[in-house]
Fold this sequence. Notes:
It is a single chain. It contains no helices and seven strands. It is an all-beta fold. The protein is globular and about 35 Å long. It has one domain (6-15, 23-72). The chain has a three-stranded antiparallel sheet, with no helix packed on it. Strands 1-3 form a two-stranded antiparallel ribbon. Strands 2-6 form a two-stranded antiparallel sheet. The protein starts with 10 loop residues before the first strand and ends in a 7-residue tail after the last strand.
Amino acid sequence: DRIKNLDFLVAISKLPGEYDEPTALELSNIGSNEIYYSIDTKDSRLVATNMKYTSPILLDDDGSYILKAYTVDSSGNKH
C-alpha cells in the first residue's frame, strides 16, 4: 500500500529509544485533523486509551512505553 495523503500522518517529536530523563512527546500533523493517542505500558496507572491530544505527553516514570496515534477528520473518520 502507498500513502496517498500526508494530511493524516502523525509525526512524533522523539525517535524510539532509551531516555535517561523525563521525556515530553509532541504529536503533530500537517492537516487540521484532531489527533488521538493510546499508550500501553506494564504499569496500568500509566495506560491511556484513545485520548485526545491537547498538549505534550510527559513520560516521567521508568518503563517501556508503546505509543499509537491516529487522526480523525472533520467527518469523524479515523486515519
